[in-house]
Design brief:
The complex is a heterodimer. Chain A has helices at residues 46-53, 76-86, 102-113, 117-130, 146-159, 176-193, 204-207; strands spanning 4-15, 18-30, 35-39, 61-66, 69-70, 87-90, 164-168, 196-201, 212-217, 220-226. Chain A is an alpha/beta fold. In chain A, the strands form 2 sheets. Chain A has a 6-stranded mixed beta sheet, with helices on both faces. In chain A, strand 1 and strand 2 form a beta hairpin. The mean pLDDT of chain A is 89. By secondary structure, chain B is an alpha+beta fold. Chain B has 2 domains: 3-59 and 266-412, no CATH class; 66-261, no CATH class. In chain B, strand 7 (173-179) and strand 8 (185-196) form a beta hairpin. Chain B is elongated, with a radius of gyration of 31 Å. The chains are: A alpha/beta, B alpha+beta.
Chain lengths: 230, 414
Amino acid sequence: MSEIKCLDLCKNYQQGDAVIKALDHVSLDIGHGSFICLSGPSGSGKTTLLNMIGGLDTLDSGEIEIDGQRVDLLSKGPLADLRLHCIGFVFQAYNLIPVLTAQENVEFVMQVQGVPAKERKAKSLDILREVGLDGMENRRPSQLSGGQQQRVAVARAIVSQPKLVLADEPTANLDSESAKQLMELFHELNESHGATFLISTHDERVMRYAKRLIKMQDGRIIEDTAQEHG
Amino acid sequence: MTTGQHLPVAAMSRLAWRNLWRNHRRTLIMLLAIAVGVWAMIFMTALMRGMVDQMIEDGIDMLPGMVQVHHPDYLDDPSIENSMPEPAPKLLQALASPEVKGWTSRVRVPAMISSERDSRGVTLLGVNPQGEYALGFNPDSLVEGRFLESPDDTGLVIGRKLLERLETDLGKRVVVMSQDPENNVADRGFRIVGVYEAKLASLEEVYIYTGLKTVQGLLGLEGMISEVSVTGEDYRDVDALLARIGGANDGTLEVLPWMEIDSYLGIMMGVMDGFVLVWIIVIFLALSFGLVNTLMMAVFERIREIGLMQALGMKPSAIMYLFLLESLMLLALGLLLGNLLAIASIRPLEGGLDISAVAEGMEMMGVSSVLYPALKLRDLLLANVVVIVLGVLTSLLPAWRASQYRPVEAIAKT
């Protein structure tokens, strides 16, 4: 049974007089524990697809189901619930709340979920250790490198064990070494936590880590292939 | 404590507090603006309250008393025909109750006073000196000679201005002339035994004092008086006093509070209360522009962060709550500073603020040349409540704006 079902997704944006087809009849099934890279040039619809699946934007037409629940029919409140409990996000940049420390950033989602303080603290320290940030829990984002900030964001995205992690160009602002480390971390977490990872990228090195590679162009899926992790 | 998808109060407060200090300079400037605004609200209110309090208290001193008992027709026609008997035992019992701070019986009649140089129309007051002291007569107002010693005292105490107008002096004799109940002229010579100064110089020309029994004897009014004047603790709260005295009335007399005896004074109090509220709101309106601007700037600077928090599962209402909390913290800090500043600047002036440079003009308004700022708890509370309530209401717009961003648009903002 699929975890995520996308059926005939369409999304147009108006740009002046022109209509941009960001998603053009996209259909997609994603199983539990998948590790998928969405690749394609800028404007191909990768980010739009992630935003739709994550409930950050609304569809013009089509259906999205996550574990049988129609995401496209949810109102703001239930959508926020879905994001809180089922989805972890990692963005390209500006991932952290600047006035909170690394540990507080990781705890943020659990605080909103109402997880008790003791449990929150233990989980956040564990996950920070797991992503290689042991000893940096009290640093604010401005005191961390770009790679370290992305690791904190990853830690926050997976700490409450969501079913799905959506990462939008997570390595775009990282050097090669940091990008490699981050992708290895994603891969390990996919293996150990069993969460589904859906990563948009146009970085060839990132794509090598995908178990399934979906190529997009002009809002359409043009290629969908399974591959061995390189 | 959490409410749905809201952060616990402590976490939300920590986040709001840290956000508040992200831009130190802007927060400090806004804080200063709120503090100065609150100071201006409280300080000016205290000055105005002091001025109006003084006008009302002086007015009550002139009546005198917070509650008066008269013949039912006395206020319409304050002539000698509308006198009343001295207090009966039931009224005397009420006058001994705890609500009564002091009371006195008086005869008050229009009269003419003549010296060897000049004549003036005055109000002759036959008083019981002990009662006058109990009612609030200030011995320090006597600048020469002595005050009356008993109801039988035949000496005359007059104001300094009147003394100057009559071109007479302490120890000299004057003639006081009035009418008895049969409309016959009643006059007698009095020796000036004391000279007083009033807070309002104009009053010094109006009132002359002698013993109650002396006036009763002069006018043939044995056992009769014009009024019983009663004073309590607080002129704002005379209901209990009025009920106590009114309860002792057998229906033949009229018992009235000060605001009905002198409706101008009563209106002054109402106008002052309204004016204080208007003044506080006007200052707040000026402040609110800065407050809205500060919060709008904070919202615009953090649009991506707002989007991030929404993506992480925070509901729009929680984001609104976060910005309102920031505003509340800013307001609370500003209020704290403003209150401290106001108290620190008013306390040293409570001994009196000399405004003699403009005293002539002030006297026309019935205010003396020394102002006593009055810091009232209710005014302090009013200023604080208005700032908090209107401040939060004003902050609703930027907070609501923050909560209405679509996550995808907010995250994409550069």
